[in-house]
């Protein structure tokens, strides 16, 4: 067993990061969740139910696609897309939702709550809740509701109730605060489906495990297609679930380089960004100790990113640990760079990526040209961009330009 | 008198007086630093036995709208951890007897530097700490340092805290035990008397410390009802609401102190039902 497969420790810590820093009311609830999750992991029937939904409902495995035109365009490394945007509901998010809502069912809970930023986690949760016959409430910041209208409507069509959150900056962190307030109030029937590898233990590890299907498939597919492991993996990071899902099964493979891409907004030096590792400091928020955007007084500061899904002032604790271990390299990409990569992907590959994903693609654009063709680079195409049409049109000054 | 005993002394006195202590919460710096200090200084005379002073935080996850807004007002007025400690120090210039506990979230303390914070808090005259999101099984060094600094760690027991967990939560508790009487955020609906009475009996099987009850207690009647079987009654949202509704800082102070007087009278009323 590698040091990476043994994380977190019994108290939910990855080194000094993680833990369960929540109100006392929630402790017995997350302990019950942890027990149930442990049992489910070893339960063949649960696993086969999960596998069934992953295959026939989500559409897994997602293809590992060689992006030939983009590869030629950069003239360097061979670029592969892990096509998570082809999943049902359009992103990697549903991998985790299926797992958690099945757990909720196993625990006898009937009411699902979730927070959402860009709306992809909300849509995925709403879909799965509908399928499994649960009521679903999604907390979403008012700012995000404005810039992600199509997803708001999608969630409503799927039968979810959307509760607008106006406190704070009306973005993902505020939605998460409100979901935690709901959970602490509705302790008997409610299951909180956290959408990323953050929150109190066991969420970071549990969400990672559900998302690790991405990396496990990638590994198999790459061995199949190229007869060897990839040389590098690139993924965007808000909370960090798509990145953790891709990275985790490769952590013990020293030859595989990993790059996590945070949202640089207007640039880390401008102060208007969402890059917790590049521009933050350790602190405690939403149940875990991790890197946060905060001021000298420990007040959480506003994140900024053109992509609502990356607009979060923290990052999953395992990423914070991997950052300090030096196992994963974390970089940041600005709004402008992401937007350029977004358009490039549309025109070169005929794939409209999510703005979140465009951050990872922009990092590929930086690295690939200088690398040899033998270098196999996998980028997690974590989501599709249909939801982002309004933001992109606004940025480009109209759809015709 | 050293600071550690201020809480014990006061709670022994209210017990001897055969009444529950009134614990009043306000947020430091709400609505502005000067008014907040005025409000704080007037609390003992209005009838507060123990003061709970909130350290505002941008993301108060366990608080309802009243304390959320109060925290934002304070932060918008420029409140910081340093200013909160300075405020305690100025309060202590005139009041050496009223116990004061700081209440808040872990991050601003962590960022300040836990050891430095404890030292500065003890020096300012802080008697205890209530940290909503720091469970007893994390950061033991912090709890040890608090004890060394003579600062009580007030433990929170909730409706979900049972069995082994209850024992664990109470193990190193000191000062008093804070029973969060409803599952929910601050400012919620009041608890039922029966549920509180039952839980308090369970808590007292494991501790000799006084038990205070908070969450959802708004009126003198609520306070009197809960005070019949608790050692202290904690009121917060109903007080910061006075600041929210007031048209001027002076009116805020007056309305808040009036509400405290009313609550204190309720707890001293021996003929009330």
TrEMBL record, chain A:
Subunit structure: Tetramer of two alpha and two beta chains.
MF term (GO), any: tryptophan synthase activity
Pathway annotation from the record: Amino-acid biosynthesis; L-tryptophan biosynthesis; L-tryptophan from chorismate: step 5/5
Residue span, Tryptophan synthase beta chain-like PALP domain: 59-383
Official protein name in the record: Tryptophan synthase beta chain
Sorted UniProt keywords: Amino-acid biosynthesis, Aromatic amino acid biosynthesis, Lyase, Pyridoxal phosphate, Tryptophan biosynthesis
Enzyme class at the top of the EC tree: lyase
Enzyme Commission code(s) on record: 4.2.1.20
Lineage: Bacteria, Pseudomonadati, Pseudomonadota, Gammaproteobacteria, Pseudomonadales
Cofactor: pyridoxal 5'-phosphate
Listed InterPro entries: Trp_synth_b_CS (IPR006653), Trp_synth_beta (IPR006654), Trp_synth_beta/beta-like (IPR023026), TrpB-like_PALP (IPR001926), TrpB-like_PALP_sf (IPR036052)
Function as written in the Swiss-Prot or TrEMBL entry: The beta subunit is responsible for the synthesis of L-tryptophan from indole and L-serine.
Catalytic activity: (1S,2R)-1-C-(indol-3-yl)glycerol 3-phosphate + L-serine = D-glyceraldehyde 3-phosphate + L-tryptophan + H2O
Family, similarity comment: Belongs to the TrpB family.
Taxonomy, superkingdom: Bacteria
Organism: Marinobacter halodurans
N6-(pyridoxal phosphate)lysine: residues bearing it: 93
Transmembrane segments: none
From TrEMBL, chain B:
Enzyme class: lyase
Pathway per the UniProt entry: Amino-acid biosynthesis; L-tryptophan biosynthesis; L-tryptophan from chorismate: step 5/5
UniProt-listed Pfam families: Trp_syntA (PF00290)
Entries under InterPro entries matching the protein: Aldolase_TIM, RibuloseP-bd_barrel, Trp_synthase_alpha_AS, Trp_synthase_suA
UniProt-recorded Gene Ontology molecular function terms: tryptophan synthase activity
Entry keyword Cell membrane: no
Subunit annotation: Tetramer of two alpha and two beta chains.
Family designation: Belongs to the TrpA family.
NCBIfam families on file: trpA (TIGR00262)
Protein name (Swiss-Prot/TrEMBL): Tryptophan synthase alpha chain
Organism for this UniProt entry: Marinobacter halodurans
């Amino acid at each position: 067993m590698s040091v990476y497969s043994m994380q977190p420790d019994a108290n939910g810590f990855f080194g000094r990061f993680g833990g369960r820093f929540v109100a006392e009311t929630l402790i017995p609830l997350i302990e019950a969740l942890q027990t149930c999750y442990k049992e489910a992991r070893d339960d063949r029937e649960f696993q086969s139910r999960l596998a069934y939904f992953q295959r026939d409902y989500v559409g897994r495995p997602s293809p590992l696609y060689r992006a030939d035109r983009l590869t030629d365009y950069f003239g360097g490394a061979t670029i592969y897309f892990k096509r998570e945007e082809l999943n049902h509901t359009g992103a990697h998010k549903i991998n985790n939702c299926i797992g958690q809502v099945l757990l909720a069912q196993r625990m006898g809970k009937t009411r699902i709550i979730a927070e959402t930023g860009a709306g992809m986690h909300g849509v995925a949760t709403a879909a799965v809740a509908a399928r499994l016959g649960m009521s679903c409430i999604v907390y979403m910041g008012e700012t995000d509701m404005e810039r992600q209208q199509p997803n708001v409507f999608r969630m409503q069509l799927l039968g979810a109730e959307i509760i607008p959150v106006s406190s704070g900056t009306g973005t993902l962190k505020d939605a998460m605060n409100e979901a935690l307030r709901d959970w602490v109030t509705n302790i008997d029937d409610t299951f909180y489906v956290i959408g990323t590898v953050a929150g109190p233990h066991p969420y970071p590890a549990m969400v990672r495990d559900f998302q690790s299907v991405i990396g496990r498939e990638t590994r198999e597919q790459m061995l199949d297609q190229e007869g060897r492991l990839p040389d590098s993996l690139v993924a965007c990071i808000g909370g960090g679930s798509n990145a953790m899902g891709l990275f985790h099964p490769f952590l013990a493979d020293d030859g595989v380089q990993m790059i996590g891409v945070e949202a640089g907004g207007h640039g880390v030096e401008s102060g208007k960004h969402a890059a917790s590792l590049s521009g933050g400091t350790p602190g405690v928020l939403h149940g875990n100790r991790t890197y946060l955007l905060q001021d000298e007084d420990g007040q959480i500061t506003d994140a900024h990113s053109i992509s609502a899904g990356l607009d979060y002032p923290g990052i999953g604790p395992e990423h914070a640990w991997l950052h300090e271990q030096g196992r994963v390299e974390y970089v940041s990409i600005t709004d402008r760079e992401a937007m350029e990569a977004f358009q490039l992907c549309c025109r070169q590959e005929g794939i409209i990526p999510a703005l979140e994903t465009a951050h990872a693609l922009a990092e590929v654009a930086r690295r690939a040209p200088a690398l040899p063709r033998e270098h196999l680079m996998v980028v997690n195409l974590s989501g599709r961009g249909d939801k982002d049409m309004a933001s992109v049109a606004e940025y480009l000054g109209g759809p015709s330009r | 008198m050293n600071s550690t005993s201020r809480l014990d002394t006061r709670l022994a006195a209210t017990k001897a007086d055969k009444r529950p202590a009134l614990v009043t919460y306000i947020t430091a710096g709400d609505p502005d630093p000067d008014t907040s200090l005025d409000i704080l200084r007037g609390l003992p005379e209005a009838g507060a036995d123990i003061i709970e002073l909130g350290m505002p935080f941008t993301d108060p996850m366990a608080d309802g709208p009243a304390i959320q807004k109060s925290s934002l007002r304070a932060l918008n007025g420029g409140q910081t951890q340093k200013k909160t400690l300075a405020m305690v120090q100025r309060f202590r210039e005139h009041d050496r007897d009223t116990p004061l506990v700081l209440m808040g979230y872990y991050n601003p303390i962590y960022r300040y530097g836990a050891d430095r914070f404890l030292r500065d808090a003890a020096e300012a005259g802080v008697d205890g700490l209530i940290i909503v999101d720091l469970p007893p099984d994390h950061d033991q060094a912090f709890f040890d340092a608090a004890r060394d600094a003579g600062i009580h760690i007030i433990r929170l027991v909730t409706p979900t805290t049972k069995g082994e967990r209850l024992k664990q939560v109470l193990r190193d508790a000191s000062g008093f035990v804070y029973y969060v009487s409803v599952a929910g955020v601050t400012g919620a609906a009041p608890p039922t008397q029966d549920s509180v009475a039952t839980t308090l009996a369970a808590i007292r099987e494991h501790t000799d410390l006084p038990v205070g009850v908070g969450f959802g207690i708004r009126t003198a009647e609520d306070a009197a009802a809960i005070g019949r079987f608790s050692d202290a009654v904690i009121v917060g949202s109903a007080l910061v609401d006075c600041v929210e509704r007031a048209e001027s800082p002076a009116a805020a102070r007056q309305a808040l102190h009036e509400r405290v007087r009313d609550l204190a009278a309720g707890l001293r009323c021996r003929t009330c039902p």
